[in-house]
Structure prediction request, 277 residues.
Amino acid sequence: MDMLSLFLISIPVGFIGSLTGLGGASILIPLMVFFGIPVKEAIASAMVSVVATSSGSASAYVRERLANVRIAMYLEMFTCVGAIVGATITTWIAPLYLYFFFAAFLMTSFLKVGGGSGQKGRPGERSGTGRLSGWLELEGSYFDEATGKTVLYRADRPILGGMGMMVAGLAAGMLGIGAGAFKVTVQENVLRLPPKVASTTSNFIIGMTALAGTSVYLFSGLLNITLMAPMAVGTTLGAVAGGRVLNRLTGTVLHVLFFAVVILLIAQMLYKGIASW
Prediction:
């Protein structure tokens, strides 16, 4: 792939990654693998685009009070540790296994079916009653333009959520995807955050997580500036655009888009892994 083609592809990828909370790298890595780029090099280079995507979309989400910075900073303590460990593992193992690990981890996204929609957004009522969450002030509110209501919320089970986010960080560092799918799942099903807060806070978190993993790939020599530069710029532009329209979409639309993208990614990586067997 030449730099111009990669740049043009990265813009819609960043847009979709911003809306779904997956991050653009989750889509870019299968695309690069499809075009023949070695999987380890694709993973390492895509992590830089994760930082760019997170920065682009998170700025809009914080301004609109959708992303919860306090909750994000708490969860980042767990994800960064996992990312460093995961990136180190990737530099050691055979590339073949990464295809299947990538697909298997994305399959955890289907855990979203069972929960995460319990936040009804009733004005004046804050969900979540955890004592630790109250002490840490892991709570917030935002105005939902789609429903015309102010949504109040509080994170439940912060310790269990932190453990889940450490697993997400491990996958993020190992697979270079930001692990937005799993992070959104943990935040909706374990922390019981509203879908829009989970998606936007995930975008905020994945940047710091990716930065931790990128430090490992930098010293391993896997980073490719020819891939990094157009991906970083393209995904950032797409992410900024996605951040401007997300609050106008309903939770149902976001969930449908999320699952459609995840299914395509799983199919692509399974196919590549089987073909390389």
Summary: The beta strands are 139-144, 149-154.
